[in-house]
Design a protein that fits this description.
It holds the Pfam family TPR_10. It comes from Trichoplax adhaerens. The protein has six helices and no strands.
Length: 119
């Protein structure tokens, strides 16, 4: 069976390819694949689905690895907003995103901000 270009399985495949690229340090390729995945997910799932938040988190991680901290924080905050709305403030994904934001602040030398995210 051939899947349409906007099938959710295609988005998942793009996401998996992006993860491999990211692990290899091929960040531009990773971003390209994550953005393809995001485009499909936004079309199929809408703006506020937890899977969208996961993709924002993945994109943020790439930006963090590239040293693009402001872009990373922007993506992490988009992810956090969706997860807080859809999953509630006690979901493990919230803690993960707070930890990720703290890591960016640490990388920027903003230790008080990093600590505040962890408390």
């Amino acid at each position: 069976k051939i899947l349409k270009n906007n099938h959710p399985s295609i988005a998942k495949t793009y996401n998996n390819i992006a993860s491999v690229y990211s692990d290899q340090g091929k960040y531009d390729d990773a971003l390209s694949m994550y953005n393809k995945s995001l485009k499909i997910k936004l079309t199929q799932l809408g703006d506020n689905h937890p899977s969208i938040a996961d993709t924002y988190n993945n994109i943020a991680s790439v930006y963090d690895n590239q040293g693009k901290y402001d872009d990373a924080l922007s993506m992490y905050n988009k992810s956090l907003k969706i997860d807080l709305t859809q999953l509630g403030d006690n979901h493990p994904s919230i803690a993960t995103t707070f930890r990720n934001i703290a890591s960016v602040y640490k990388d920027q030398g903003k230790y008080d901000d990093a600590l505040s995210m962890l408390l």
